[in-house]
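WARN  no MSA supplied for this record, continuing single-sequence
INFO  ligand: flavin-adenine dinucleotide
INFO  echoing inputs
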Amino acid sequence: MQKKAKTKTKISPRVSMPMLDAVERGRMFSEVALGYTLEQAVSEAKRCLQCKKPTCIKGCPVDVDCKGFIRMVADKDLAGAFARIKETNSLPAICGRVCPQENQCEKTCKLRPTGQPIAIGRLERFVADNYYAHTSCEEETGADSCVPIDESLKVAAIGSGPSSLTLAGYLAANGVKVSVYEALHSPGGVLLYGIPEFRLPKSVVQREIDSLKNLQVDFLCNYVGGKSMTLPELFQQGYKAVFLGVGAGLPRFMNLPGESLIGVYSANEYLTRVNLMFGYRFPEYDTPVPPGRNVVVIGGGNVAMDSARTALRLGAERVRVVYRRTKGEMPARQEELEHALEEGIELEILSSPLSFHGDDQGVLNKMVLQRMELGSPDDSGRRQPVPIEGDTFSLDTDLAIMAVGTGANMVLTQTTPELELNERGYVRADPETGETSMNMVFAGGDIVTGAATVVEAMGAGRRSAREILKRIKG
Amino acid sequence: MGKIIQKRVLIPKRVTEMTIKAPVIASKARPGNFVVLRLSMKGERIPLTIADADPEKGHIVIVYLIMGKTTALLDTMKEGDVILDLCGPLGRPTSIKKQGTVACVGGGTGIAALHHIAKGNFQAGNKVVSVIGARSKDLLLFKPELEKISHEVLVSTDDGSVGHKGVVTEVLEEYLDRDPDVKEVIGVGPVPMMRSVARVAQPYGIRTLVSLNSIMVDGIGMCGSCRVNVGGEIRFACVEGPEFEASQVDFDELMMRLQAFKSQEKESMELFEKKELL
Ligand SMILES: Cc1cc2nc3c(=O)[nH]c(=O)nc-3n(C[C@H](O)[C@H](O)[C@H](O)COP(=O)(O)OP(=O)(O)OC[C@H]3O[C@@H](n4cnc5c(N)ncnc54)[C@H](O)[C@@H]3O)c2cc1C
Ligand SMILES: Cc1cc2nc3c(=O)[nH]c(=O)nc-3n(C[C@H](O)[C@H](O)[C@H](O)COP(=O)(O)OP(=O)(O)OC[C@H]3O[C@@H](n4cnc5c(N)ncnc54)[C@H](O)[C@@H]3O)c2cc1C
Ligand code: SF4
Ligand code: SF4
Ligand code: FES
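INFO  complex generated
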């Protein structure tokens, strides 16, 4: 172990991660961030202070022992590091890539005040990627050996996003037979249809799913919970518990004039056409993607950044992101925002759309926006954007992508009246266990919290899995 | 699951009926529901109405009009072939209650989709009057099937080769004048026809529903592609529809949005016909 750094000035900077060139990558779908080499990982791990009272772990929603696994990386014990991460995190290759670390583990790292916290996410990704050749049960779970699957202990998970995948991994490792029902034709949830290839390669998601299959988790696609089968029917089929991880649903629109014009799309539709349906390879693949030369994306989160960077890769000449507050308030992962700007995406801050305009065929060609300024802070302490009276402007555009949030998915809840919902249509669930108003029905992820993060969904899956295990194994 | 049990050409090179093995879907399918299917790893997801379902045999029936690449590809499939992905039943079912006379108005391929709805109403004990129209006699679908589950079947053709010469809504109007007991009108067919059903039924103050066929991708309420304008609000046909109150629907917008991918659809079909794409 290395010596403790005594003063802030002695802290070496974070080891930066190799990346594809910004100009080159802006036109292709290859993953942008290339990952550490062994030397880079070890030298980053050696920066860790190995604090007596590590604060990093508190910042992680699934309690990864950051300090512990980082020490193992410093010692080049990748197997040990992998097992340590896997004890609490079943999808490390994904989390390392998509967690907003600056708000989670890296935010609470003791080195954060120096501006150079340990690159915990990059290290986690490094360990997972480099250790993945192995898929036996012990390595899957970090446990010494695996509990054999007991076919009579069946649990169903509905939806196959990160919450369900985590639940399935935890339960399967403990001998429970899990069936994951997915309405779409492939599993993965947002990891598959939402987050693009250049940020989270589909092969990484597939690898996680394959390793669950090795644990005898069944994936049943084209099944719609609440429609193909009701929850009571699942219990009749012998499932002891049901977990609902059906995720976020309908995209929000702003109810503006012209919002239905051809050329105005929700980010969900745009990204689904590209990612799930491989529309970027039309006409080899059948699903068309709306072309856009002059693209405007409305929103400031990850979904907006993903849409903007996708449009660029599909050949847009100019991509602008319209956001009603300022750059500092954008909810996107910091790294994604930086990458987007490097690739040439422009920001149009402090503005908000007022209307869309098109030609006589109903095809979008222009939008009108309102300039905003930051007013006084609201209850949450954030300064509210307020319109500057009379200050409007217009942008020429042939593709506008609305990334202004989503509502609750209603396909299951509308056919399951027994399930208690909150006023916004999300499922009410106990924060500790995820249990819903229905006996032995649990829920977690975006269908409970509204659009959140991958690792929060995983944390929910894990908490429910623990509770389900306790109840069904007695 | 997904195996084609029977294929029946209804109108050569235009409309085909398929009976498909899908026990889970058949056991749950209600009138008004649809399925989403995908034929190959590179294929598109398209919605098709469940025209009939037999829960005992575990079969569903679909009837499709060959419009473009996917329906043309579907039409190359034979009995015994298996549809790669078949998901359903989707959409809200038609709300059927015993209430008296129901006029079921169908045009073109919509007549097949209407069949399940008419059957549901018949079984619920309603008086079913099916009003169907096509361009000519040989393009008229499902008349014998509808006769089995309707108290009356009224027909129109554009060229007068069978039934009333003219459009189907003229027959509807005539019937509404004649029978004051009609409690509900349901229209399924091409958009101009549904718009006309809305217009004709309006003065009678009868509850009138139409089944909207907006472009869909997932069909489970996630993407927002299927949005339609009903009563000035954005509604999603796959989870809130596909049936909506006719008088509230913005048909012009629906027509416009159905054209969104016209040039790509054309390109796809041309390549398919040249056998460059399968
Ligand atoms: C474009 C985009 C980018 C994002 N980027 C990030 C990021 O960088 N970092 C981060 O942490 N988070 C990110 N998020 C958020 C994150 O992806 C979600 O919070 C997370 O995926 C939620 O997981 P979940 O388990 O609730 O289910 P989801 O991933 O939402 O998956 C739910 C699944 O359930 C299926 N389903 C729905 N209804 C039914 C039913 N009735 N029957 C069967 N199946 C059903 C759906 O088809 C879907 O596959 C992003 C989200 C999007 C859309
Ligand atoms: C709820 C619903 C039920 C339907 N039921 C039937 C039915 O029972 N029988 C039938 O013949 N047709 C039905 N349709 C229409 C059918 O889905 C389209 O004809 C089909 O998708 C055309 O695909 P294609 O590749 O052959 O043609 P394309 O060349 O792709 O398209 C031809 C036209 O079909 C429409 N269309 C294209 N893609 C889609 C899509 N993904 N979803 C919806 N419409 C699309 C567009 O208007 C397009 O201009 C239904 C549509 C909906 C929404
Ligand atoms: S799971 Fe996410 S938050 Fe937790 S340690 Fe890993 S990167 Fe950080
Ligand atoms: S808080 Fe930061 S420096 Fe301390 S142990 Fe955790 S990662 Fe290392
Ligand atoms: S088809 Fe995607 S929301 Fe309706």
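The mean pLDDT of chain A is 90.
INFO  checksum written, moving to next record
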